[in-house]
Amino acid sequence: MKTKILDTKYQILNTSELKKFVRExxxxxxxxxSLPPNFPNIPMDDLSVEEKHxxxxxxxAWFANEGGKIxxxxxxxxxxxxxxxxxxxxxxxxxxxxxxxxKPVQAATTQIDNVIQSTMSAILRK
Length: 126
Hints:
mainly alpha, single chain, two-stranded antiparallel sheet
């Protein structure tokens, strides 16, 4: 059974190589450097039920040891990017709203000054 599985990186992995990896995986002392390409996103279509369970166990062990760190830092990058974008958006909205608030106030002040001056000149003429 020499069928081939294509992963997303376009590297070819033989089903027999995947089965050999699953059979020879050492759970007590795992070697995380010998993982197949594109691990853990490898399709398991051609594996038997037992091999699928073992492969899922390997994924779980990897996640418990190594994968959690990798996924944590990926999520941390996304969270920081969203946070910085959010702070920038708030700053942009604040600066824009300040401009919108101050312009009408200045216009109203000049109108009030004109009313006061015309009223005072009318009073002084009498």
